[in-house]
Amino acid sequence: MLSLILVFFVALEHLLFGYIEMFGSVQVQSKAFGFPEKELQSNTLQIALSNQGIYNVSLGLLVIAFIIFNLAVNSLILSMIFVVIVGTYGGLTVTKKIWFIQVGPALLALLSLVLAL
């Protein structure tokens, strides 16, 4: 049960990330992602963030579907591995804060899933 709660938390995080990326104000995006507001006023960057937001929302919904439809634990494990890999890259290329906000919860969920096998 703890594993599902942790995985669900990771999914909710991605829904929130996607919402902020697609619909958040420049001020909210700046605070959430650490980009200067001036950069975030770029139409090109806003389009890129919106596109990334779609992927985050999709990942969140996919993981929630795995939980709701009681799919194999392997599906959840693979999803958490994916989040860890993507978050690690983001931590290396954007901000180390991603390691704590995205990778940390996904690693806890992954560890919990593996130990529950």
Task: Describe, in plain words, how this protein is organized in 3D.
By secondary structure, the chain is mainly alpha-helical. It has one domain. Helices cover 86% and strands 0% of the residues. It contains six helices and no strands. The protein has helices at 2-23, 26-33, 37-40, 43-68, 73-93, 97-116. α1 (2-23) runs antiparallel to α4 (43-68), α1 packs antiparallel against α6 (97-116) and α5 runs antiparallel to α6. The longest helix has 26 residues, at 43-68. It is elongated and about 50 Å long. The two termini are 12 Å apart. The mean pLDDT is 91.
Please tag this protein with its features.
117 residues; mainly alpha; 6 helices; elongated; transmembrane helix
Helical content class? over 70%
What integer value in Å does the Rg equal? 15 Å
Specify the overall morphology. Answer: elongated
| Percent of residues in β-strands | under 5%
Give the total of domains.
1
Low-confidence stretches: none
Biggest β-sheet, characterized? none
Order of helices and strands: HHHHHH
Number of strands: 0
Mean pLDDT: 91
The structural class is mainly alpha
- The number of helical elements comes to 6
Distance between the termini: 12 Å
Protein name: DUF1304 domain-containing protein
Keywords: Membrane, Transmembrane, Transmembrane helix
InterPro entries: DUF1304
Pfam families: DUF1304 (PF06993)
Write the layout of secondary structure elements.
Elements: H1 2-23, H2 26-33, H3 37-40, H4 43-68, H5 73-93, H6 97-116
Helix pairs in contact: 1-4, 1-6, 5-6
InterPro entries: DUF1304
Protein name: DUF1304 domain-containing protein
Pfam families: DUF1304
